[in-house]
């Protein structure tokens, strides 16, 4: 009986982990969805990273630290873009996956487009972080 309970607990944990993952898409897929008006792109890195490397041209800059905290900028952004898919990227895809999974748990359609380097490798447009969108 103990073994059965342990197995059930392990299975439940595994299923919760799977449910918490958001789909991973390519930067090209992200760019297509954004261009079609079906999605918005979010760079969830921190401000110092934006200024050091630049950002994807269509990206809205919303730091993960704000998402994890008061969500001062995130709340208004999510209200404004209700009904649209939120596609995230960061440096390598880890933070983007975490935020996308948290959004998905709240009922927001969210995807992980990986890292900024993936966006650059795909030859997609970038801009300086301080340049207007």
Description:
The protein has 133 residues and is of the alpha/beta class. The chain has one domain (21-127): Rhodanese-like domain (Oxidized Rhodanese, domain 1). It is built from seven helices and six strands, in the order ααβαββααβαβαβ. The strands form two sheets. Strands 3-1-4-5 form a four-stranded parallel beta sheet, with helices on both faces. Strands 2-6 form a two-stranded antiparallel ribbon. The radius of gyration is 17 Å and the shape is globular. 29% of the residues are buried.
* Mean residue pLDDT: 88
SS summary, helix count: 7
Work out the count of structural domains.
1
Point out poorly predicted stretches: 11-19
User: How many angstroms does the end-to-end distance come to?
Assistant: 60 Å
- Considering DSSP H and I runs of 4 or more, what fraction of the residues is helical? 40-55%
List keywords for this structure.
about 130 residues, alpha/beta, Oxidized Rhodanese, domain 1, 4-stranded parallel beta sheet, two-stranded antiparallel ribbon, 7 helices, about 50% helix, about 15% strand, globular
């Amino acid at each position: 009986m103990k073994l059965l309970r342990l197995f059930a607990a392990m299975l439940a944990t595994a299923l919760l982990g799977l449910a918490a993952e958001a789909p991973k898409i390519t930067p090209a897929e992200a760019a297509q969805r954004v261009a079609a008006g079906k999605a918005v792109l979010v760079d969830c890195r921190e401000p110092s990273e934006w200024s050091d490397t630049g950002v994807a041209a269509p990206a809205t800059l919303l730091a993960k630290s704000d998402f994890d905290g008061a969500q001062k900028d995130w709340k208004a952004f999510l209200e404004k873009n209700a009904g649209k898919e939120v596609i995230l990227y960061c440096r390598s895809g880890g933070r983007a996956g975490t935020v996308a999974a948290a959004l998905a748990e709240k009922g927001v359609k969210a995807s992980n487009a990986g890292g900024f380097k993936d966006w650059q490798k795909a030859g997609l447009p970038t801009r300086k972080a301080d340049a207007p969108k």
